[in-house]
Amino acid sequence: MTSPERILLGDTVAKSRYHLTRESLVRYAGASGDFNPIHYRDDAAKSIGLPGVVAHGMLTLGLSTQSVVDWLGDPARITSYRARFTKPVIVDPDEGAIVDVVAEVGQVDYDSGAARIDLTVTFDGHTVLARSEIWISLR
Q1: Which residues, listed in sequence order, are joined to residue 16 by a DSSP beta bridge?
Q2: Cα separation, 67 vs 96, whole angstroms
Q3: What pLDDT digit, counting tens, does each position of 87-108 carry?
Q4: What residue segments make up the domains of the chain, in order of their start?
Q5: In angstroms, rounded to a whole number, what is the distance separating the alpha carbons of residues 27 and 36?
Q6: What's the pLDDT tens digit per position in 17-76?
Q7: Contact 38, 50 (CB under 8 A)
Q8: How open is the CA angle 14-117-28, to the nearest 5 degrees?
Q9: Architecture of the CATH domain 4-19+56-137
């Protein structure tokens, strides 16, 4: 992988694949305190029009950010991030769900020592986070 100090516009700096299971959701709920039943009960999810249990949005966002943290080697180099949630990640009780993340350099400003990393986050062939970007310090 390219080091942060040597990145160029368009470089792919990270690719990650995350397998979520219902157990993953229970563990995240315990860590985050978000025990909304749509994250562990199909009937609750279906009662509000979802096709089944969905992953926590913040879990999906956190995983996408983690791919960049792993590349950087230091979470303190992330100065900001944002994303818009576009589709839920449905977590099948047997097979779970696969979330893919591709991180590419969208902007580099060597003078200020900052860069924007654009994330493509998909599940089942659909983008689940739009306008997903992370600003990093190059220094």
Answers
A1: 101
A2: 20
A3: 999 999 999 999 999 999 999 9
A4: 4-19+56-137
A5: 13
A6: 999 999 999 999 999 999 999 999 999 999 999 999 999 999 999 999 999 999 999 999
A7: yes
A8: 65
A9: Roll (3.10)
